[in-house]
């Protein structure tokens, strides 16, 4: 039979409440009592039941990690970092896939069934009403990797996507490209619109137009670039608003017999692991994943500890990663 709290109390010669306090972070217990309880627990092979303790503390330590980008390999990297960071903070991630969910209220009901202590929305395409619904229900919520000027009063952690678009245009112009275009992700995504805004404003007369892939996916990037090639002569270089779309575009260009970067230049955004593979070598704009994840976890911890704290917006800088899909600087 499983070792119980009472078994440990009997072996240590203390009360059940003393055992409970010993295994409750921040609870008051003397060093002598703690030593006796820990020794008894080790002898009996006792491990605290975190689910049972949640009934006492009112905290499950579950954090809903919500996204709708599970098919994008970049987000697998993000989820890996999030799960590690949450676990290191003593929290437990609950992955929630909203790929086919359009109703914020239904999603909220699902999270409530698990009594999550907070929610991290890791998406650039979920609309602001999702974070609004979570916050209105009293759930601490952080929106990571997304940004919208119409977003609710919510903690936000992202890069400055307008600045990223500006950097992309400056990068292409500096390499002598006279006709440059934007191949973005879904048109409705706030990040897509902001990246296009920054790119178009800095590109000026060199801007030849924008096209939008229906999803952040390899096949979507390849199909969209094939369509652009069928339309006839276009841009000398394309800024793709996501690495996986850029890699799909590279595939389409190579299938068409075009040399990259000799005939067409490609610039991505994110710096996902795959972008650095030798057979891809994508020049891209790096999004600081580790820093965004760390900031998001810190903010959700702060909100759980203090429900009255004011939300923050943290915009982190991005940087160019030089590889092999753009011509060199003159």
Task: Describe, in plain words, how this protein is organized in 3D.
- There is one protein chain.
- The longest helix has 17 residues, at 289-305.
- Helix 6 packs across helix 7 and helix 8 runs parallel beside helix 9.
- The protein has three domains: 5-57, lambda repressor-like DNA-binding domains (434 Repressor (Amino-terminal Domain)), CATH 1.10.260.40; 62-159 and 288-316, Response regulator (Rossmann fold, 3-Layer(aba) Sandwich); 161-287, 3-Layer(aba) Sandwich (Rossmann fold).
- Helices cover 43% and strands 17% of the residues.
- With 330 residues, the protein is α/β, with parallel strands linked by helices.
- Strand 8, helix 11 (243-255) and strand 9 (265-270) form a beta-alpha-beta unit.
- The strands form two sheets. A six-stranded parallel β-sheet has the order 2-1-3-4-5-11, with helices on both faces.
- Keywords: DNA-binding, Repressor, Transcription, Transcription regulation.
- It comes from Salibaculum griseiflavum.
